[in-house]
Known about the structure:
The chain has 4 helices and no strands. The protein is mainly alpha-helical. It starts with a helix and ends with a helix.
Amino acid sequence: MSVFDAVIAKLLSGAMTVVQLKQLLDEKMKKQFSDLFVIVEKTSESGMKNVPESGIPDIDKCAVLTKVLVWRQTELHSFEDYCLKVNHLLGLCANTRSG
């Protein structure tokens, strides 16, 4: 498995770290990653063909990648929001404890 394949697998499974995800979702990096995906797919054996294991013909892999990136961006925003709320709650608990 190539490094690129490993990154794709982590992206699809959600196993990517927050730092890796933030780097990948940076607008410049996201564009470069998408461009690289197109190049790899065009030169691979399966090419830009359908995904046979899905049983659904003519899946646009680039569109799927774009949707997954949007999902991960949404998840990242939710995670960051959750972290802010937890940190705020911990601050309130610390204030209550010392007060």
